[in-house]
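Consortium newsletter contribution from the modelling node. Members have asked for a concrete example of what our holo predictions look like. Here is one, prepared for the malonyl-coenzyme A complex that several groups have been discussing at recent meetings.
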Amino acid sequence: MLFLTHLQDICHAQADKVAIELSAEKLTYQQLETGVQQTMTYLLAHGIGEGDRVAIQLPKCLPFVLIHLATMRLGAISLPLNPAYPARETEYFLSDADVKLYVTAGDENPNFASATISTNLADFRQMVAQFEPSIKILPNERDQTALMIYTSGTTGRPKGAQITHGNLTANITGLHRAWGWRADDILLHVLPIFHVHGLIVALHGALHAGATAILLPKFTPQLALETMVNRRCTVFMAVPTIHKRLVEFEKSAEYDLSHMRLLTSGSDRLPDDLFTRYQSLFGHTLLERYGMTETGMNLSNPLVGERRVGSVGLPLPGVEARVVDPESDEPLPDGEVGEVQIRGPHVFKGYWRMAQKSADAFTKDGWLRTGDLGLREPDGYFTLKGRSKDLIITGGLNVYPPEVELVLSELPAVAASAVIGCPDDEWGEQITAVVVLRAGHRLTEAEIIAFCRTKLAAYKAPRRVIFADELPRNALGKVQKARLRESAC
Ligand code: MLC
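And here is the predicted structure:
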């Protein structure tokens, strides 16, 4: 049964139970179902039909959830966008995805058909209450795109990863089994809901289980720990930067988290010392797992059994994983490092209107080339060993150097630049730009950073700029980033 059909059943079966709450706002499962149906009619009135893209660029709020679910229920495509994107980035996504409707809390964007809505649940529900619920519509095609999330690439502009109803369903049913989701779970949800981690793994996960999700609009260690304790939460999902902030919060030892049953970590490598500090401070062994936008979740340490430090665990139910020689796509023996490749019903169907890039992403046998390097141990556990692609992960967010280099190249004073990730205690990696200025030009580190922040979301902008006379290049003229990392980090 598809995720949305299952969710509708849950809404009927436990109508009065609280599904989601955020600050003082709450939705029971019945209110969720009614709100989704009214929002469907509202979207229909905006001309939204099967296959249309609805971009949702809202802060973390309950109307976001209603619009997201309603869009997918109509067979249209939900396109969540980070509200921190400056206009230029947003406009690229809206025009590349050819959106039919852009939902925003801010001023209407004159270039795109947009709906400005209140992010206050009471106002939003009052607005959609004038629409009759759309009862009958439910998509039933596994292969139909439900959701599109943009990921950047090592070359070119960001690509829209098309995630189907079948993908969402495969992901959530696999995780449900592997992590033992239960209806009496209470999830503390601190992540943004415009990415796979916060949206599919955490929020869809809780709804699929008929559990309660408590959403915090913004993560702070104190509020997260207080909520976990006061609300007797059972499940918590976060990225390493967030787990680190919990461990380092000065009062963390005062919080008794013994009632929690599952604390997971993902989106970036969990440092070994954080894993052990967490164990000794909170008495919990973090469950590390591995996923990506194109697939959702692939590998996970077990709920019961060894959660191995430094390892991302075993394939989730329904997932095939292998390690290959990236040149030949030939499988490698256990213990040898190669590219991790993934296959299964959870793997996306391709990038939006990029046939060649979609084809290149897969081997001829349908394995997804993840670009991550790793090895498989003889007992089946996988360990990641870096990336073959030139990707930076900062605070659990992916940043692709070419995107930043492109912005730097717009500065007339910049002759050449290379963007690298340097190891960083707080963020995992820190975005560092190595810049060569044109002769006779002057530009300061602060000016470069400020310029990038006008063009890119702040987390993508360099935190540090190093000036160099030239960049190390190989015989083909390609910048040798490994050498740069050695000298600059
Ligand atoms: C915020 N800042 C960051 C940043 N987040 N800088 C680098 N990397 C980041 N990830 C900067 C802001 O620009 C700002 O800088 C300063 O930090 C404080 O901003 P903030 O908004 O107050 O930050 P904060 O709320 O503390 O956010 C930090 C965070 C957040 C760790 C809570 O980044 C976060 O929620 N990360 C999770 C991302 C996530 O969900 N990833 C999943 C991707 S899905 P200044 O200078 O402007 O003040 C995926 C697949 C999978 O990867 O497997 O899960």
